[in-house]
Amino acid sequence: xxxxxxxxxxxxxxxxxxxxxxxxxxxxxxxxxxxxxxxxxxxxxxxxxxxxxxxxxxxxxxxxxxxxxxxxxxxxxxxxxxxxxxxxxxxxxxxxxxxxxxxxxxxxxxxxxxxxxxxxxxxxxxxxxxxxxxxxxxxxxxxxxxxxxxxxxxxxxxxxxxxxxxxxxxxxxxxxxxxxxxxxxxxxxxxxxxxxxxxxxxxxxxxxxxxxxxxxxxxxxxxxxxxxxxxxxxxxxxxxxxxxxxxxxxxxxxxxxxxxxxxxxxxxxxxxxxxxxxxxxxxxxxxxxxxxxxxxxxxxxxxxxxxxxxxxxxxxxxxxxxxxxxxxxxxxxxxxxxxxxxxxxxxxxxxxxxxxxxxxxxxxxxxxxxxxxxxxxxxxxxxxxxxxxxxxxxxxxxxxxxxxxxxxxxxxxxxxxxxxxxxxxxxxxxxxxxxxxxxxxxxxxxxxxxxxxxxxxxxxxxxxxxxxxxxxx
Amino acid sequence: xxxxxxxxxxxxxxxxxxxxxxxxxxxxxxxxxxxxxxxxxxxxxxxxxxxxxxxxxxxxxxxxxxxxxxxxxxxxxxxxxxxxxxxxxxxxxxxxxxxxxxxxxxxxxxxxxxxxxxxxxxxxxxxxxxxxxxxxxxxxxxxxxxxxxxxxxxxxxxxxxxxxxxxxxxxxxxxxxxxxxxxxxxxxxxxxxxxxxxxxxxxxxxxxxxxxxxxxxxxxxxxxxxxxxxxxxxxxxxxxxxxxxxxxxxxxxxxxxxxxx
Lengths: 473, 261
What we know:
The structure holds 2 protein chains of 2 kinds.
Chain A: H1 8-17, H2 19-41, H3 46-62, H4 64-77, E1 81-85, H5 88-101, E2 106-109, H6 113-118, H7 120-126, E3 130-133, H8 136-143, H9 160-170, H10 183-200, E4 203-206, E5 210-212, E6 217-222, H11 226-232, E7 236-242, E8 246-247, H12 250-260, E9 272-276, E10 290-296, H13 300-304, H14 319-323, H15 327-330, H16 341-352, H17 359-362, H18 369-373, H19 380-394, H20 399-412, H21 415-433, E11 438-439, H22 446-449, E12 454-455, H23 462-468
Chain B: E1 12-15, H1 19-24, H2 26-38, E2 42-44, H3 54-57, H4 62-75, E3 81-84, H5 87-100, H6 108-116, E4 118-120, H7 121-128, E5 141-145, H8 148-154, H9 158-164, E6 171-172, H10 188-191, H11 193-208, E7 214-217, H12 220-232, E8 238-241, H13 242-246
Helix pairs in contact in B: 5-6, 5-8, 7-9, 11-12
């Protein structure tokens, strides 16, 4: 999708007046954190598991080339094919070639953030192939022609009434008067429609929560089982994975699994955890004839060597989103691309370029909640600050804010002058303001006073008063 | 008057007033001085202090952050401890100054030395001075807001509550979202005022659900944000810094309240 991160202010304005979205966000802000807290209370060794996961991912990043090559060797041994793609264009072209070689008309898709990153649906459509999302949330946003608003719950912003509307518009072959009021009715309709798509699809595309180096397997976790049908029924299975998804062993995969679902839905494990190893063997009762893995770099090998390396530990659990005061206020679409929330703030500038996404690392109060809940302990606020430093150096920030910061710093470095001028200014402000105690509108601070009052200074500064009483210096 | 477990203390403490307290609410500074002096500290306020440099640091202005940090390190040489009535500014000095100088052979050691002797006020009272109780009276029900930096970077949670529990007449009631950000975030509040306003709106709604009269916290930035929103909404809830309550200096109008009330 074409990023709209540059229009952050407009996106935010839209989100703040969207009542449906605001209602959904209120639920998200309470729901996910509560589920996580409950799961963690029940598992005293959770923090130890987090440490294990961090150690594991750091080892993977230290030896990424080794594990990827090992994965490739094993995957080929199992009869699979591995395609190294440096960017999304190359990845899309590779997927298309595989689909065309299979004479594919329709492609079923499991949920994949790499697929979103590639814009693979649009690309296939442009080339005459129909992609069908099979994760219910993804299916809904595909019908609505939207990007996901949450990496785990892509359609959390869509209330059931709007799902019904989208279904009635899309499923015109069904009775227009049918009832779609209950979630169960929506679910049954989606299931019936998708069941047929599963059977007729020529190619199935899934993402990967991991790639296992020791076995050459890919693994996905889902709660709907759609991923299994996507990868087992069609003749060809394509896995979309970014390079940092590899782990050394099956046991390592289980280390990640133990913190993954707990961090977001509070489940011990997602309902389905499915490993795929190569195409169907002679004695298998089902499975695809071809097994392809797209290994996408798209800027990650660069991150491996820069200040954002720790971000490559991210396992896409989505925990940081529901805990972030900004995300739960503006929702996912305001970030302007396929990722969102705290992880998106760090990742998006790396993937689509910093200048057009410069707002994202700034739109953060540095509260640190994301880092607190991240199962992989990714220092997101620190990395936001790194982006701000790059913005400052590149002079992307507005002239007005640079002048203000420059003037403030000039004064802050000259204590005598600072105290003199501050003493003068705040004495006057105090005189004007202290009777009422606050200002309701201040010309130079209208951004503040738009939505709240500005408490008045008390009068003479502390420094003045300390000097007056001859306090020790 | 505060009870002292050990009257032999006469620590030399440098007070970093913080820029907001200096400019907007000196009474917090004097409450801090009183709490420290009552517990046997000798308090000095070096003149060569303005701000800890956080606005520059969080704006990515490394050069000015370093210059301001050097000024602070030089100004506070020679004290046994440095104390601030703010978790956010204390975290800046104790957690982030060493990072600013990690490749600087001349300044790294002094930055680390300052970092280890720098404390937020309530932590200094409970953990260093081992203060158990204060002698203050505040006939109110109140709720406490945990400011983010203090909570997550310095682990400030029980320290203020422990001291407040000894204030006569004061009853603390926890709000559901005590640990959630108020939406201040320094320059965030004016760069993204609409998001900030929405967050603080939710925050004060939650605080008011406790049906207490006062909101107490340890960081003036957050308190000005929440007080500003409460006053805009004409809400009766008052906002005070923990130092004023602990020092029994609550005769001045609360934050955002007028003398003409």
